[in-house]
Amino acid sequence: MVRRTAASVSEWEALSSAAFVPLRVTADGAFTAHLDHRGRARAAMSSVRSGACRVLRDPTTTSAPADDLALFSFQYGGRNLVDQNDRQAVVAPGDGVLYLTRSPYELLFPGPSDLIVLQVPTDWLGMPTSALSALSARAMSTRSNAALRTASRLVRSQFGGAPLFEDEGRTLRVATELLVAALRREGRRGAPGLSHDALYASFRRTIAENLDDPLLGVPAIADLHGVSVRTVHQVFAERSERAAALVRTLRTARARTLLRETALPVPDVAVRCGIPDPTVFARTFRREVGQSPTQFRAAQRERSRHS
């Protein structure tokens, strides 16, 4: 693990070259960047926050076989302009982009940027070089690719204090598996079936995104992922969890947040938590929290007044 802050372009060039592959960095004026790099050998995840700069992988640094890596950048803040293989992509927040270290590329960050880079040997992806090259420097929306969206949530959890998988190596393997599924979909190639770890990450993402759906349950999760109800139960049981319990826990957490931080009427809170009947919502909330929604909100406001 490497956590470093660079206070100059030269420091950032040395730091990013050590973490990824040899690079050249230029910038105008004052510059700072922060790197949180986690992984082993050539496989890693890196959280990058940097100021405006230009990053160049030029022909003089692309000859080493050990540098044959695939880098996939998940953009969370700012923009990234990627140029590789005579293609240019504008990568906005919510997008991702693939670039390959075997070929020259240029990254232009016109302002402050926040991203996470998944870095793996290209042979981990199990796709022909020609197919990967055809997908490089193409902005890919996480909103329209479920596997990519799951991979984004998974790698971000590793840097947010509540990782889905505690083991970084396991996170890398599952994120790579999901990336392969996402890339194969983008390239219109059939994707292999997902492991139970990848399904678990996908199920959790689906649940988090659909808490307002009254029909959210094991049958709906199974249908959305093209697997059997038995598989959903099995994936959660392997982790001593139950899908229904997770849905209930996350809905309760959302209800707490909405009651504490908004002035939404309780029936509207109920709808946003996937329980459109206010009576059922109040009964469920009391069972989980020990107070009615109205009592909970009043207690939170009283606490805020005395804090």
How would you portray this structure in words?
It contains eleven helices and twelve strands. With 307 residues, the protein is α+β, with helices and mostly antiparallel strands. Among the domains are: 2-141, Jelly Rolls, CATH 2.60.120.10; 254-305, Arc Repressor Mutant, subunit A. The strands form two sheets. A seven-stranded antiparallel sheet has the order 1-3-4-11-6-9-12, with helices on both faces. The longest helix is centred in the middle third of the chain and has 19 residues, at 168-186. It starts with a strand and ends with a helix. It holds the Pfam family AraC_binding_2. It comes from Microbacterium testaceum (Aureobacterium testaceum). Residues 201-299 form the HTH araC/xylS-type domain. This is HTH araC/xylS-type domain-containing protein.
